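ok here's the first one, seq then struct tokens
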Amino acid sequence: MAPALTAALLLCSFGPLAAETQVPATDAAMALAGKAKIAKMAETEDQALLEAGRVLDALHLSAKTADWDRYFSLYSQDALFLGTDADERWGMAELEQYARPTKGWRYDVMERHLLRHAEVIVFDERLSSLAYGACRSSGTLIHTLAGWKLLQYHLSFPIPNEMAKEITAQLKRHDGNH
């Protein structure tokens, strides 16, 4: 059992005992109750981050297996997908038009970071792709009545700083911007 969870369970177990035995509230008892509340909040935070991680894992697995019904069920209806091309700013209808005819795509998660702000979780992932090599995703999940859903997903190619001028010069030539 995780130390925070063990602490939360231990701290929470003292509450009813104190109430049943009519122990008067002391500074120590109030501090203990405060620690229990903080431990419970940390446990809830950990659970939310675990659930969000499972949503992202399911996203990658369903894309890999072209399980498009499952894939699109992980997004909110008003979600936005930002692809690697500058013109790929798609709502779910546009993303479905692109995705459903394909046999899927595979991105393996190398590293993931999640940060919760109330009912919103932002994330970034370092990904590996057979087709593209190193990639990065970032985005936002929101908590809904149906659980955590993707509100925004952004896929990009990280460019090493020492290559940035060369690559951006190529992009400028491609776009016709001198």
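and now the second one, same deal
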Amino acid sequence: MKALKERIKKDGEAIGTEVVKVDGFLNHQIDVQFMSQLGKEFRRRFADLKIDKILTVEASGIAIACMTAPWFGYPPVVFAKKTKPNTMTDEFYGAEARSFTKGTVSIIRVSKKYLHQGDRILILDDFLAHGEAATAMTQLVSQAGAEVAGIGAVIEKGFQGGGDRLRKAGFRLESLAIIEKIEKGKIRFV
């Protein structure tokens, strides 16, 4: 998506050779109008899909999932929690996910009330690096007996291999911008 690549070049910051900081519009301060354009682009790319729910993981994926939902007719947005709150008294689906950004491992959880057998799920997230969060979300969907209709990432760091692994596993993956490499403070797109 040309507008996203331009925005990353304008407002993003390369940190080392593996980190892209886009917190000014995507995951710390949110440019709501731009995020809606990203949601519209996900709808265009997944126009052939009928989906029942959008699944993401807290916290950065929630904004893009919520801004995409109107373009699909307002399906519920379900987000996996990274810690078990004391209010989660129901049974839940759980899967292990490593956070590239934080360097931590979490069990992400979704209450069994919110994912059901036969649901067609669109998984969305802000970043795709090694594919740990996306893979964990596919496991939650599988545990529920639901179907992964597609996976979308706003920014994929192609050089970290997660997207390739998901595609090889047979998932339909659409990334709005794919970064080929980060070198000497420059972000290069595929």
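notes on #2: DSSP finds six helices and ten strands in the chain. The first strand starts at residue 13 and ends at 15.
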